[in-house]
Amino acid sequence: MVGEGGTAVVYRAEHRTHGIVAVKVLKEKLRADKTAVARFLREATYGTRVSHPNVVRTIEVGEAGPGVHYLAIEWALGDLLEKYAKQHAPLPPEEVGEIIGQIADAVYAVHAAGIIHRDLKPDNIMYDPVSRKAKLLDFGIAAQSDQAPEERLTRAGFFVGTLMYVAPEALSGQLVTSAADQYSLATIAYYLLSGCLPYVGKSQREMFSQLLSQPPIPLNSARKGCSVPVSVEAVIMKALSRNPSDRYPDVVSFATSLRSAIDTRVSEAGRGSLFSRMKSLIKRNDPN
Mean pLDDT, to the nearest integer, of 179-196? Predict the structure, then answer.
């Protein structure tokens, strides 16, 4: 056993043809819960529909006994991004750009398959800092993008996801679009760049109220000493717009804009450094 969530226990196991894998097994107390079983089976189904190098691969789905549903997935190297971020955030912008770019590509593939992830957060991303490889996992509360209201597993008036990363429009419990995933991904970028979140409610109720009524805290005001280039901050805050139509057209557009802003910062820093070295050289060679 290597981990445990709200609905499943995770084991490290050896598959007869795929070597080391991670196996999720539905918790015993939920095996009679029709909604929990439906969510677990839906996760397995969605996982098999998306094939992308930055999405943890689904290998096998089955039932080991009455109600003992299991899901075998790729064993990804590294650790949860949440753990890495807690130890190292704020991360260098270049590293953040790489992580967000990879996950944006993965999420775009998810959207192309007609799925909304609905629970993007650092706890659902595996990250290997050695190879700088990021992989998306956990389709536990994902939903069809064209799903009819009567087919939802979430009752109207309720929301699914993690409050700190959920888009404001999801709080009504209504069906959300791919723009909600973009908002969550932007929140992840905000967190990686600052070590903080765009809302600071001290309780779930306060956080809920802030999300519904207030704009997010500007990135450079997230904490004392936070100094992110204005162009980078602008990209993040656009993707965190309260109105989904004010965000980027899709997650890849957001990630591309973010990397472009970061690359511009790096180029400007490089030019500044070169200019300083040239001035120093001229000064040393000036006889006067």
Answer: 98
